């Protein structure tokens, strides 16, 4: 494990140098700041594992620094140093979310003990993350986020049909991940080494689409200067993904039906039948049943395609996935943009958790990409989000309880468990429990009250 990076904030040079020197000797990465303002600058520009700040300073006080630090990254533990006898300020700091406090003069062994505990906490946080990932391994496909019950159902179906050659019809609103699922089906099938070929049916006019799909011989029509293989041929040995299948014209519906039945077709301008070994996947956001009723879509083709239907629920019906998706997309775009954007401020998160996402995951993706590009901090703040998110009336969502799954929640859970265990082990004797936990008795009492233990 890398050594902890610690930011020491104190306006008094002698005190700052003493603490910095001691911590450096102990092997930590140490940065000093002479004011709260400077400390916030540092917190915005790089990742810090712990802040140790004096309470009383000219300019920003330790308390204000604490509030600012929490905004930048709510996970960063902040320890406040108060003058002897000023318990009120310490209590205030704890209420504002300080991790702990020390009184002057700082006892170096006490400080060290505190840091060890923070190290342990970080270790646990990492373990919790890894555990969570392991749980998700059940039906995990690279890059697909979905721990909600609804998505787990989808992914278990994907896992079951991927290996077969059956035709799959993927349904769902725009932006729900239909193409992503098509790729997962291909890359988890025995055909994964073969090609994955996508044809966007809505993007091409009928005549072009026909030669795109079936290919043509030289001279088959004006402009056909060369013989060209169609997508059905190119996909040989792999998977052909027919996207936006609902837009297929009626004459091409007939031709496609034949390929599906006989796995055989001819290039335009040729009578020589070509046999291919392909698996067909199709997707649409249209109501195909209605199209069949209205005779816009052939019923026989519908049944040929709809062998295994997979329905992707809209994001608003699986809001539990929103936090994980935000996390995933933030990582994806901060990597792509080479920017160190590590989190989302509490206020921005509240907006993102509340939003209804009519454009589903694709819309969320656009929001996060834009925010990562715009932000000037290492967290996303409300100003980085489009104004319609900020101004939209706050509509209470029924399923908001799951925001408790955030990392902060997990850390508190761990802390609570550690305290409970220590109290049990020491038969409820607080002095001993506090000693084992490496915190002062006062802090322990505070936490017992906080967690209602
Ligand atoms: N569950 C998910 N986990 C991670 N990324 C996702 C998920 N669902 C969708 N995405 C991402 O959102 C974007 C939109 O997904 P995709 O293109 O598969 O949707 P679609 O249903 O085909 O949309 P459209 O109907 O607009 O073509 C993609 O970049 C995709 O990677
Ligand atoms: Mg699509």
TrEMBL record:
Modified residues (4-aspartylphosphate): 54
Highest taxon listed in the record's lineage: Bacteria
Keyword line: ATP-binding, Nucleotide-binding, Phosphoprotein, Transcription, Transcription regulation, Two-component regulatory system
InterPro entries on file: AAA+_ATPase, AAA_lid_NorR, CheY-like_superfamily, Homeodomain-like_sf, HTH_Fis, P-loop_NTPase, Sig_transdc_resp-reg_receiver, Sigma_54_int
Start and end residues of each Response regulatory domain: 5-119
GO biological process: phosphorelay signal transduction system; regulation of DNA-templated transcription
Cited SMART domains: AAA, REC
PROSITE patterns the record matches: RESPONSE_REGULATORY, SIGMA54_INTERACT_1, SIGMA54_INTERACT_2, SIGMA54_INTERACT_4
GO molecular function, one term: ATP binding
Domain Sigma-54 factor interaction: 144-373
Protein's recorded name: Sigma-54-dependent Fis family transcriptional regulator
Naturally occurring in which organism (per UniProt): Tectimicrobiota bacterium
């Amino acid at each position: 494990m890398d050594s902890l990076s610690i930011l020491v904030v104190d306006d008094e040079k002698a005190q700052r140098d003493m603490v910095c020197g001691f911590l450096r000797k102990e092997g930590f990465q140490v940065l000093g700041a002479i004011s709260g303002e400077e400390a916030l600058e540092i917190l915005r520009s790089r990742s810090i594992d712990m802040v140790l700040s004096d309470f009383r300073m000219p300019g920003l006080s330790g308390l204000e620094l604490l509030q600012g630090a929490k905004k930048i990254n709510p996970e960063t533990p902040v320890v406040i140093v108060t003058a002897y006898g000023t318990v009120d300020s310490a209590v205030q700091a704890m209420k504002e979310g300080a991790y702990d406090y020390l009184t002057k003069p700082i006892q170096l062994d006490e400080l060290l003990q505190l840091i060890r505990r923070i190290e342990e906490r970080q270790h646990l946080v990492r373990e919790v993350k890894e555990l969570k990932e392991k749980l998700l391994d059940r039906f995990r496909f690279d890059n697909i986020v979905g721990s909600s019950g609804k998505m787990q159902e989808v992914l278990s179906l994907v896992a079951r049909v991927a290996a077969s050659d059956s035709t799959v019809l993927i349904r769902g609103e725009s932006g729900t991940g239909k193409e992503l699922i098509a790729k997962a089906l291909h890359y988890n099938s025995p055909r994964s080494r073969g090609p994955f070929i996508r044809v966007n049916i809505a993007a091409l006019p009928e005549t072009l689409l026909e030669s795109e799909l079936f290919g043509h011989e030289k001279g088959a029509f004006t402009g056909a200067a060369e013989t060209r293989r169609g997508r059905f041929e190119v996909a040989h040995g792999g998977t052909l993904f027919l996207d936006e299948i609902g837009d297929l014209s009626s004459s091409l519906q007939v031709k496609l039906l034949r390929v599906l039945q006989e796995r055989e077709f001819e290039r335009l301008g040729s009578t020589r039948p070509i046999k291919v070994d392909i698996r067909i996947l199709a997707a649409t956001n249209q109501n195909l049943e209605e199209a069949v009723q209205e005779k816009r879509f052939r019923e026989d083709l519908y049944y040929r395609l709809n062998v295994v239907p997979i329905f992707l629920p809209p994001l608003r019906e699986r809001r539990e996935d929103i936090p994980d998706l935000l996390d995933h997309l933030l990582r994806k775009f901060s990597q792509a943009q080479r920017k160190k954007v590590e989190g989302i401020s509490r206020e921005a998160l509240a907006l993102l958790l509340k939003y209804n996402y009519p454009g589903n995951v694709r819309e969320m993706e656009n929001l996060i990409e834009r925010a990562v590009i715009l932000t000037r901090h290492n967290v996303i703040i409300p100003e980085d989000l489009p104004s319609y998110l900020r101004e939209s009336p706050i509509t209470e969502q029924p399923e908001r309880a799951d925001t408790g799954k955030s990392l902060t929640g997990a850390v508190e859970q761990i802390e609570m468990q550690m305290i409970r265990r220590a109290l049990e082990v020491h038969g409820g004797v607080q002095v001993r429990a506090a000693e084992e936990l490496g915190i002062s008795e006062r802090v322990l009492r505070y936490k017992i009250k906080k967690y209602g233990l």
